[in-house]
Amino acid sequence: MNQSYLVRLMNVLGWLLLVGSAMAQTPYRIEGRVTDATTGQGIPFASVAVKGTTSGASSDAEGNYQLAAARLGDSLLVSSLGYAARAYPLLKETTQTINITLTATASSLQEVKVYARGGDPAYHIMRDAVSRRDQFDPTQLSAYQYESYVKTEAFLNEFARKEGRRPGLIGGRLSKMPAIVGENGDPAVPVFVSETHSEYYHRSDPGKTKEKVLKSRALGVGITDGGLTAQFTGASFQQYNFYNNYINLLNKDFPSPLGQYWETLYAYHLMDTLSVGGVVCYQIDFEPRQDKDAAFNGTVWIDTTRLGLLKIDAQIDRRANINFVESIRVEQYWEDVEGSDPVRPARLPVLTQLLIDSDHPVPNAPGVLVRFYSSAENIEVNKPLPPNFYEPALELADDYRENSPDYWKEVRPLKLSPEELRVFEVVDSVRNTPVMKLVGKAIDLFSGGYLPIPGTGLEIGPLVYSYANNDIEGHRFRLGLRTNQDFSRRWILSGFGGYGTFDRRFKYGFGVEYVAGKKPWTVVGVQHSYDLEQLGFSSDLVGSSFLWGAFSRFGTLNRAYLQQNTRAFVRRELGSGFTQTVSVQSRSFDPQFDFAYRMPGQLDPVYSHNYHTRELSLETRFAPGEIMVQDDNDRYAIPSTNQPVIVFRYDLGMNIMHGDFNYHRFSLALEHSVRLGVLGRTYYRVNLGYTPSTLPYPLLFVPRGNPSVFMSSIGYNLMRRFEFATDHYAGLLVEHYFQGLIFNRIPGVRRLKWRFHVTGKVLVGGVSDANASLTPAVDEMGRTILGFQSLGGMPYVELGYGIGNIFKVLRVDAIHRLTYRTLPDANNFGLKLSTRVGF
User: Does residue 462 share a domain with residue 413?
Assistant: First the structure.
């Protein structure tokens, strides 16, 4: 599943820890354990239900179950994937214990003893299995495709009154809402449920994927039944291939027990030889060699003839040191594909179940349980389609919202129990309670910064921009509005108005965008604004970080200027991961500080204190492997974790229509993250820029300085806001996260769940003599003019180290400046703070 959406979903559920519901106590209680008739081991995820009622439960990781029922039927129905279903008679008693044994549809063979030199024979089997990864890894096929069904459920649970304790405020609120009987027979409040049916395609050369969502339905608190949800809950984000070196869950990389680091990180034990689905398999248990490693433990079934993966049950528990997570469990079944090579048939996962169970961050807080179920049917392999077929990588069928109960009955691989069907009704009731409606609005506000106005199609925000105080404007008040999809699915309107009590100026802005096409995605727009900006910290540099932009308006503004900006643009996707933007822009520069420059090309010095530019810009963004998702008139990029993102921009300045300069400007940025094995993950960014023209310094490149106490990953944290200007530069920004490798091995510190990381930033560049000569020491009136510092032959360097995940949200970095330490007001050491809620 896509990790950013999963993180959003878990964040939504985190908000829901403050509200919820519980069922009244029921008179009948049934408990027991579901076990394998052959091995005696507990069977997880087994479905237990009272016949003729909606009362039911699922067994936990050890096979234990509990359920409460308002009335009793004549029998207890038990079923589990891979086992024959059974029915047990019920007694008319208030409390009863029924232990259940299920017989696998695959039969157990007689005991087979295997002897080998050098330790457990499992290592010899695993070594052969890993060496044959290329034979079974689906990505080694020229192509494959299948029909996918994905079901997602999320619950608030474990909030009912505990023995000897009052339920507390949270539990009390939850106990007043609709609920179902959940795990262990206790009440659970479902807060999200979805079903998605789609067609999924993969091609290896060139590497491309495509998913077409045929039908989708979803209900949730704070998450609407829209196209965005349909895309995020489909097959594209349910790809777990254990032949890869790492499995990415919750934005963390866990080494696969069948990956290249299998012998370094895991210990293996041959347990038995069984027949699974008619195939004789080795049953091998695995566990991390060190409890401190963030790795799986569980069981893998490898067939004895071809030594390929047939089934895996992999778990991650508290030892992995993941925030807010008690356990993660992935259960996956692989099958040979009918119609493929009869000698060496292809094998793909046909069923995947993922369970994420949260811990309790504070006493008396409820838990969160998220379940995913995905299946693949009608699989075909080695039938690649033309490359252009795979674009866009994710699309919605025109009638994806139009579905009926009969449709879902037909496409579901397994029939849902009455309790599972009832989840949809209960979620709808829960999200329409007043408390949950309020929570949904709070989620929208804090995740996007805007507050919807019901019934208007308008939103107010970002609210953090509403007030600021600085030395130029005094008290700054601002009101912003924008439209949403309720207003139009094609037109996007926005605007703001602001006023400063000290400068007594009215600032304003508006924008109009039109979604001209969705296949391919094409947007045209016009924007106009008149506002106060700062050199080195304009809205162009801030981008979408509205929090950073809001805080920049406080305090002393460095080299502020008033700017009138008009821009028209066209943005279009030219191919998968390939986006082109063409824009024309008119800007004015009215400095609010002592500024002047010599007009270039004049024999006698001619000074000017402001200027106008007319600019044509071409921006190309290339992100191979990126998936674009769209929600009506919004578009979001989900970059690939193993492919770089490259952005190239060219600006052409023209002295037409009162423009003052002709110029050329080039810039290139590359962002990428790489996994360094057990050492963790490195993120790096390379920036290059060149201006061959002669221009005043505000039009040159200004590195992002960051004098605030907050950490910036894209800026230089010990550089002042306008400390340097360059017309050619090269920068490298690196952050490496050890992801618990160090602190997990320090007794006592491990329990704190701290994460250690290091950072490094280097910038080289300079300014030509022609550009440096444009800035005089004094103007024509003899007034002192503020100049600028240029990077010389020495690079700017800062190094840092820090601790993240303090109290699960706080990060502290210690930064050292290694060069340009003797400049006036140079800040050579600093502590920077930042916050991030993550796993």
Answer: no
Helix (H) or strand (E) holding 821: none
Per-residue model confidence (pLDDT) at position 380: 93
pLDDT digits (tens, 9 = 90+) for 736-755: 998 877 887 787 777 787 88
Structural domain contains residue 110: no
Instruction: Give the integer Cα–Cα distance in Å for 153 and 194.
Output: 7
**Does residue 314 have a pLDDT over 70?**
yes
Contact assessment for residue 286 and residue 296, using Cβ atoms and an 8 Å cutoff: yes
The structure tokens listed for 479 are 């009101």
- DSSP collapsed to 3 states, 447-498: HHCCEEECCCCEEECCHHHCEEEECCCEEEEEEEEEECCCCCCCEEEEEEEE
* Residue whose pair of structure tokens reads 């030889």 in the numeric block: 273
Return the closest-CA partner of residue 712 out of 668, 759, 675, 753: 759
Q: Give the residue among 306, 375, 295 at the shortest CA–CA distance from 341.
A: 306
Please give the structure tokens belonging to residue 579.
Answer: 């986006």
Q: What is the pLDDT of residue 20?
A: 34
Does residue 472 contact residue 500 with C-beta atoms inside 8 Å? yes
Burial of 201 (0-12, 13-18, 19+ CB in 10 A): buried
Q: What is the mean pLDDT of residues 532-540?
A: 76
User: Within this chain, do residues 426 and 453 fall inside the same structural domain, yes or no?
Assistant: no
What CATH number is associated with residue 588?
Answer: 2.40.160.50
**Taking the CB of residue 225, how many other CB atoms lie within 10 A of it?**
14
Paired residues of 83 in beta bridges = 104
Match 């926005």 to its residue by tokens.
Answer: 494
Residue 616 lies in a domain: yes
Residue 437 structure tokens: 């409606």
Report if residue 114 sits inside a domain: no
Cβ neighbours of residue 540 closer than 8 Å, sequence gap 6 or more? none
In a shared domain, residues 696 and 819: yes
Separation of alpha carbons 212 and 264, rounded Å: 40
**pTM here?**
0.74
Residues 73 and 168 in one domain: no
Cα–Cα distance measured from residue 667 to residue 687, given in angstroms and rounded to the nearest whole number: 7
Match 């706080």 to its residue by tokens. 810
Instruction: For residues 256 and 363, state if they share a domain.
Output: yes
Q: Is 687 left (phi over 0), alpha (psi -120 to 50) or beta?
A: beta
Please tell me the total count of domains within the chain.
3
Please state whether beta strands 451-453 and 578-591 pair in parallel, antiparallel, or not at all (unpaired): unpaired
Contact 570, 581 (CB under 8 A): yes
pLDDT of res. 580: 95
Report which of 727, 728, 704, 726 is spatially closest to residue 717, judged by C-alpha positions.
Answer: 704
Whether residue 7 contacts residue 839, with contact meaning beta carbons closer than 8 Å, is answered with: yes
Q: SS3 of 184, please?
A: helix
H or E element that contains 638: strand 634-638
- Output the DSSP codes for 60-110: -TTSEEEEEESS--SEEEEE-TTB--EEEE--S-SEEE--EEE-BSSPB--
Upper half-sphere CA count for residue 134 (Cβ side, 13 Å): 1
Query: How crowded is residue 496: how many other Cβ atoms within 10 Å of its Cβ?
Result: 19
Crossing angle (nearest 10°) for helices 434-448 and 418-431: 70
Among 72, 102, 132, where does a domain finish? 102
What b/e readout covers 811-826, taking b as 16+ CB neighbours within 10 angstroms? bebebebebbeeeeee
Given 407, 439, 471, which residue is the final one in a domain?
Answer: 439
Instruction: Verify that 86 and 226 share a domain, yes or no.
Output: no
Residue 167 exposed, middle or buried by CB count within 10 Å (0-12, 13-18, 19+): middle
Residue 111 located in a structural domain: no
